[in-house]
Automatic annotation (TrEMBL):
This is Unannotated protein. It holds the Pfam family ROK. SUPFAM superfamilies: Actin-like ATPase domain.
Length: 113
């Protein structure tokens, strides 16, 4: 893939997975498991009603969202005691971080952090 393991980037994995490459799909699944583990830890701690996934993941659509949702359901602590938070992709995908940084000063007064 991509001329050697040191040259592989996320977009190479994405493209190969979309073409059905088994190795790339396994990488996507492993990555999704780690993302879901982090999201389940956040959920167990903060109990949000919704988690918004942005950045490059959001631009990949269901390729990443579906396995993240699957792993999330398996990793969430005591899912029978509370409703699952909704996992959604950010509307602005890869621009979400930049937009958030741009509006952050507007909300600086909300917290003393």
């Amino acid at each position: 893939m991509a001329g050697g393991s040191t040259n592989i980037r996320g977009e190479h994995i994405r493209e190969a997975a979309l073409l059905g490459d088994d190795e790339a799909l396994a990488i996507v699944d492993e990555f999704a498991r780690w993302v879901a583990l982090g999201l389940s830890n956040l959920t167990n701690l903060l109990d949000p009603s919704m988690l918004v996934i942005g950045g490059g993941l959001a631009g990949s659509g269901d390729l990443f969202l579906r396995p993240i949702q699957q792993w999330f359901g398996e990793l969430l602590y005591s899912p029978e005691l509370r409703p699952h938070p909704q996992l959604v992709l950010a509307k602005f995908a890869e621009q979400a971080g930049a937009i958030g940084a741009a509006i952050l000063p507007e909300y600086a007064h909300v917290s003393d952090i």
